[in-house]
Amino acid sequence: MSVAAPPEAPAAPNLRALLPDELATWLGAHGVACTLAEARSVLSRELACRPDERPKRETVKKAVRDAVRELVDHRRLTVVERVEDPADGFVKYLLRSPDGALSEAVRIPLEKPDTFTVCLSSQVGCAMACDFCATGRLGLQRNLAAWEMFDAFQIVRDEAPGRVTGAVFMGQGEPLHNYDEVLRAARVLSDPSGGRIKAEAITISTVGLVPAIRRFAGEGHRYRLIVSLTSAIEARRATLMPVTRKYGLDELAAAIREVARTTGGRVTVAWVVIAGVNTGDDEVEALRALLGDVPLRVNLIDVNDARPDGYRRADEVEMARFRDALSTLGVPIVRRYSGGQARHAACGMLAARHFESSTTVS
Ligand code: SF4
Q1: pTM of the predicted model as reported, rounded to 2 decimal places
Q2: To test the ligand 1 pocket, which listed residue (120, 121, 124, 130) has its Cβ within 8 A of the most ligand atoms?
């Protein structure tokens, strides 16, 4: 699979992709003495605080502030549009990068009042071509750089009328297809001088890129991984998610076992529920055969892509029947609300709500 690189990076690193030690090292390499405390202070002021919360008094010496201004890239995204869905409070942001690329982020209200999570895109377009997904039909234009992902978070956070407590990489793109930049963004998001989000409140989704899942498992991250399974039947999944032709279900199941082993906890699998397609008893039995020995949690997400001739959401009767059948597996089943049905149609996996206070429905 070819990976489109971000547009040629300027020589200077972007401020929004730097950790304090990296900033201090970068400035030191350019002959500017900067202590770790000073680097932390610079980054905290710019990244960790909303503009109205920034301390009035400047504590970092002028030489360092001047060097940061001159030696570090400060480019940011611009907001093209923000659209709130009055039905559910989701706010979708359309953002423009300096090269003109457009990407999306979504502010998602959580069940706890005045708290939000941010759904981030990892790529412009997507190469995975999932059959139920509008983004998949665009193809991949390019990877987003870590700073673009962090900046999307920062823009959304700074406008939120409350606290942003999490981030989910479930917007456009396949996060593990842009592994290094997504993991860098997650590190800056969870740094006390960056996004100040708990590592466990950062969720990274994947359609099942097996080598990247193995790498993730081996690196021992505290971020949460969600594998979008959607079907446990090889031929059906290959139609819905062509990635299956490259990494078959047995290989994927082995990688999921590895995640379970290294994290010692349940592995979350997402199931994009499509009426009449992947809600039958055959799926439940296939899932039992494939992963019945693995501690799982199953997230049910309504397909979020209304094509006139295409896939439909399951009605409540079909959903309840499927949930009951799944409950025989003895694993927690969580129905995720997939927001913005009316105005935010995009990725079939986009932005499931209730990441922190979910409702177990069986
Ligand atoms: S569902 Fe996600 S991974 Fe699949 S094509 Fe859409 S954006 Fe890509």
Answers
A1: 0.91
A2: 130
